[in-house]
Amino acid sequence: MSIIETEATLHEAHRDNHTHRDVTGGWLRPAVFGAMDGLVSNLALMTGVAGGSVAHQTIVITGLAGLAAGAFSMAAGEYTSVASQRELVQAELDVERRELRKYPQDEERELAALYESRGVDSALAREVAKQLSRDPEQALEIHAREELGIDPGDLPSPAVAAVSSFGSFALGALLPVLPYLLGATVLWPALLLALIGLFACGAIVARVTARTWWYSGIRQLALGGAAAGVTYALGSLFGTAVG
Q1: What is the pLDDT of residues 8-19, one digit of tens each?
Q2: Torsion angle of the four alpha carbons 45, 46, 49, 50, in this order, in degrees rounded to the nearest 10
Q3: Do 192 and 224 touch, CB atoms closer than 8 A?
Q4: Hey, which of 49, 90, 135, 172 would disulfide with 35, CB 3.0 to 4.6 Å?
Q5: Which are the contacts of 125, defined by CB distance < 8 A and separation ≥ 6?
């Protein structure tokens, strides 16, 4: 194989393998963790009530109430959080936009100094800053990324965050209730389905971590099972005491 062919092969291999997973998790991470939160919290709530030796209708009502309350709470909290963050970012962008309009030369020198601090030659840094500052919107985007660490064109949506949180939490919280809705009158089918769901959620989370799917699944299974066990024990204790 010639040197040129070898280099071409190496470049092709580098191109094919030089990809990275989404380390921020994208949509997968919040969706899975929302479902996991709903599953663990509602399972623990239902097992706690079941530990008090109540009628299965009471467990079903508790599970449905926990699903609705948790999903609406998650949606409201996520909407408020993301909306507040977005408003703060937009306020800072307005500040930067005014500075670019009032003091364009100062902002250009500031950008050049930033590139110089990162090792770019002084003359080149000034030229790059000059060219990037020709378009006000491009200048705003670059200053926002460099100074604030944000992308003005990729701000999170409060509505999307609220809907996704509501849906994922409700889906997770539905699992332990589902066997009762399908006719079960004892706890163990709900517990079994919830534990399977916990393992599956943990395994999916492994897609955005460096852990193996089985380790992540078993870890989440253990944590969720422990929560359910503790609340069941507390329900048994207080149920006996109240009775």
Answers
A1: 555 555 555 555
A2: -150
A3: no
A4: 172
A5: 112, 113, 115, 116
